[in-house]
Structure prediction request, 293 residues.
Amino acid sequence: MAFLTAQGISSVAIELLVRELVLPRTVSMIPGGEFAGHNGDTITVRVPQPGTARTQSSPGDSITYDDIDEIPVNVTLSHLYHGKRISDEELSLDIESFARQVTRVQVAAVATGAEDTLTTVMNDQSADASFASSEDTDDTLDKIYGAREFLGNNNVPPGDRYLAVSPEIASRILKVLVNREVPDTDGALRNAVVGNIAGFTVVESNGLDSGTAVAYHRSGFAMANRTPVEPRGATDSSTATSQGLGVRHIFQYSPDILSDTSVVSTFAGSAAVVDSDDTAPDVKRFYKLDTAA
Prediction:
């Protein structure tokens, strides 16, 4: 398909169907400036490990010295883009609003792709428990309380806890909530908040697999986003922020095909944070729920 050119096209602009990008606001964001120079496209996040206190046997006895351990979590950036060639005919005859008909679509595609690096990591996690196949209020609460207990047993801090849910699970939780307590937050995150339950701020995202939910602390996932630099050779370039994610727009004319080239791109990557070593089992800062078949 291409731009509509039939006579009598309505001036009413139908809203672009694109999901709200809420999950990046709920995880640990790595400053994009750290991906430069010797770091390249991969950076290692330090995850400190807890220590254990010892007891001095008697006054004056020698004490034992312990190492302080850190575990690495690597986050690698991918270059995500959306490109469109725009012929002279399209630019002169078909396009009424370049920002609405072209730029908006491209920016939304790239920003959604950036969040997809995070939803992919969440979707790839194995389920720790399952909701009942049929909706049941007691079961829904029981599974959420189970997630809360799991995080508490892993010493996950009680603040900054989120429960990201697919639309199907959001419907279950809405039927449980009697009084919706929507926190005073900003932008898209406020719009996507379903409510608060068991210490979790519940946010809805249709980037998650159908019938799933992920309970996590902000530190349970790490995401990075870096806006590409503006190239020296481009005819026109600019940078902007879309729903908290930085993107770059390049506009370049190609005389050999009598067309403009419009490209929007960004760098993004995500990883799960799991505390683990060779001598102890993994300690997760998140808890995955799916729905029983």
DSSP finds five helices and 16 strands in the chain. The two ends are 38 Å apart (CA to CA). Residues 3-17, 182-189 have pLDDT under 50 and may be disordered.
